[in-house]
């Protein structure tokens, strides 16, 4: 089991830039914050990645999979163990701050 993610979750891309959710699902809340589903994206700001000498930053992180047993309006909720893919770089983002009360599978 892993912790579910909500709007106040924070993380960083593999290049150590900050990542934060753009929007959660307002129909279900955890600690007063909208829960995140696989339809949610993380905005990545300040990514220093370069391709050669040209900037090639991570811009957004998208999720392909989430919880297998917990869904909100048909979309799987995100867990702190879910791994998104960053666009356009293909790198990953790690969640390092989330709520610690509600768990799911």
Account of the protein in words:
The chain has 105 residues and is mainly β. The protein has a single domain (2-97), classed as Tumour Suppressor Smad4 (Sandwich), CATH 2.60.200. It has no helices and 14 strands. It has strands at 2-3, 10-13, 18-21, 25-30, 33-35, 41-45, 50-51, 54-55, 60-62, 71-72, 75-76, 85-87, 93-97, 103-104. The strands form 5 sheets. The protein has a 6-stranded antiparallel sheet with strand order 12-9-6-3-2-13, with no helix packed on it. A two-stranded antiparallel sheet has the order 1-14. A hairpin with a 2-residue loop joins strand 10 and strand 11 (75-76). The N and C termini lie close together (5 Å).
Give the topology:
Blueprint: E1 2-3, E2 10-13, E3 18-21, E4 25-30, E5 33-35, E6 41-45, E7 50-51, E8 54-55, E9 60-62, E10 71-72, E11 75-76, E12 85-87, E13 93-97, E14 103-104
Antiparallel strand pairs: 1-14, 2-3, 2-13, 3-6, 4-5, 6-9, 7-8, 9-12, 10-11
Primary descriptors:
mainly beta; six-stranded antiparallel β-sheet; 0% helix; 43% strand
